[in-house]
Amino acid sequence: MTERQKDRPWLMRTYAGHSTAEASNELYRRNLAKGQTGLSVAFDLPTQTGYDPDHVLARGEVGRVGVPVAHLGDMRRLFQDIPLERMNTSMTINATAMWLLALYQVVAEEQGADPELLQGTTQNDIVKEYLSRGTHVFPPGPSLRLTTDMICYTVNHMPKWNPINICSYHLQEAGATPVQEIAYAMSTAVAVLDAVFASGQISEDQKGDVVGRISFFVNAGVRFIEEMCKMRAFGRIWDQITRERYGIEDPKQRRFRYGVQVNSLGLTEAQPENNVQRIVLEMLAVTLSKDARARAVQLPAWNEALGLPRPWDQQWSLRIQQVLAHESDLLEYEDIFAGSHVIEKKVDSLVADSLAEMARIQEMGGAMAAVESGYLKSQLVASHAERRARIESGQELIVGVNMFNTTEPNPLTADLGQAIQTVDPAVEERVVAAVEEWRTTRQESSDRQGMGDPFHYPTVRQALDRLKEAAQGTDNLMEATLECARAGITTGEWAGALREVFGEFRAPTGVSSAPVAVPVEEGSALAEVRRRVDVTARELGTGKLRFLVGKPGLDGHSNGAEQIAVRARDAGFEVVYQGIRLTPEQIVDAALAEDVHAVGLSILSGSHARLVPDVLDRLRVAGATDIPVIAGGIIPSGDAEELRAAGVAAVFTPKDFDITGIIGRIVDEIRTANRLDPLLDPLEVPA
């Protein structure tokens, strides 16, 4: 079979961006030169949550998990010498998706591009932000309006752009079963389409165009048969919904269009070289079946459980895709699973169970109502807790973690300082200085109005007032947002104006309503820890030990924090957990007000080196040196040593999978901080 007869490969991307717009631009151009066929932009947390780099919550977060884009100048530098009219760009952005798309469009126009020819995707799925990633800003109603306005705008003005990428990927990261992943993502899609069609901005003959531009971003775990069946179930349900609920007759418009990043949840810090074969298996789940093949694939790197991948690591992941697409015969055949009774039985089961769960959500009032009630979040916290319990008990096996965990010395990680990409702390200072300079040098005078054909340049104040006026009314917000982009407004100013109108939202944590995942059975490890908690509380003369779980900074990945909080609750602690996005000041204030016996800080974004010592310093100033601080997250060993030297009592990372053991260690640290004798043996525990 000749090359011409083979199917066209999927888009190949690597999720990338860090430090500065200039550094990320250099990385993008290198990756494109290596054969990458699309861009996938990672934005840093301040950009994702609508803060400028000099905001108090942005401390330690600038350029850590993605590129900072604070204004039009940053977007220009990010895509310098990259012709956007010929590029397919995916932007992982949600609460501020409209803003980043506006900046992208203006930069493309400055390059001479026609917006109608721009191709790419904005993630723009706010529901999963409430449930897993935590970069939401506004309440569900206004957030859905932003999504609706952006979809309507792109359908009318950017017809090749995918305005929303409904994400089940992050749901699986938060613990979703395949059925929950399908049902919650499809329920989100229904909520979005219902809102778009009810907005009055779309004519009846445009409904097919809207549905045809809806895409999905899906997870693929290591159980690749089940995952492949999940993709087929997704396609079957989407076809049914779009045909029966919305009356879409064109099969092409009903096609389930999805991109995928394979599962990062299953990547291990222990024996990280095993992650390569995990990534390959997960990629096969979304490429082997022609009838359910992904349109775009991005793979994590083998060392993402350790920290930020280097360019070489990302190249390795790209080469995995290229070998499969160009060396194997995968693309030469029809669907190799067609007619398999095993596959059909599994797909039928997933479809039936997913539709039943979708019906439950609809009875509650739909996806948005199920978010606000806390139902979806509590279900995910519970299913994640059950998964963790299976790993701890050995019921779910992970090579290198709870089986076959003896290992030869790993040459890949012999020098951990070189095994991951590091971000120079001085980068934040430079980015902060740059945004301050931008604000002082941008032209705001009224003599710009009408200049610079073909653009209209309002002043900053005029543009922000127009944005707030549109937000208070019913106008599509995209035009006002484009004006803000052209006027030189910053990310924080745009989001701040909308915060004034829409307010902010703190999503339910799901912790208090999560059921017990590990029962306290007599003789079990959890029963022993619970006894130690009770004994320590009695010795300290308090009814219960109180444990504060804190998420400082902008890191919204709260899965680990929630699992610690739930297990501590089940072990007998009174748990104080206020959710994500807190300053060190707020965490210390809460610790003092609640008179807690320990503080646990969870950070996965890399900002631990800045934020954890800040909490320690504030506790010392308050005279609360008897409150031990425990840190957890993706923390390199060198950083862990520095944190312990600074006064952190214990540091836990993803390799520490025994949550019950972690809770027991926290009890030990409370006893040490309060000068209580250690409890060495269960038989020695006083009555």
List the helices and strands and how they pair.
Elements: E1 11-13, E2 15-16, H1 21-33, E3 39-42, H2 45-49, H3 72-78, E4 88-92, H4 97-110, E5 119-122, H5 127-133, H6 140-157, E6 161-162, E7 164-167, H7 169-173, H8 178-198, H9 207-212, E8 214-220, H10 224-244, E9 258-262, H11 275-285, E10 296-298, H12 311-326, H13 341-363, H14 367-372, H15 375-393, H16 416-419, H17 426-441, H18 460-472, H19 477-486, H20 491-502, H21 525-539, E11 546-550, H22 559-570, E12 574-577, H23 584-593, E13 598-603, H24 608-621, E14 629-633, H25 637-646, E15 650-652, H26 659-673
Parallel strand pairs: 1-10, 2-3, 3-4, 4-5, 5-6, 7-8, 8-9, 9-10, 11-12, 11-13, 13-14, 14-15
The biggest sheet amounts to: 5 strands, parallel
Classification by helices and strands: alpha/beta
Helix content class = 40-55%
Mean pLDDT: 90
Low-pLDDT segments: 445-455, 683-687
At a glance:
Helices cover 47% and strands 9% of the residues. With 687 residues, the protein is of the alpha/beta class.
Describe this structure as you would to a colleague.
The chain has 687 residues and is α/β, with parallel strands linked by helices. The chain is built from 26 helices and 15 strands. A five-stranded parallel β-sheet has the order 1-10-9-8-7. Strands 2-3-4-5-6 form a five-stranded parallel β-sheet, covered by helices on one side. Helix 22 (559-570) packs across helix 26 (659-673). It is globular. The N and C termini lie far apart (78 Å). The model is unreliable at 445-455 and 683-687 (pLDDT under 50).
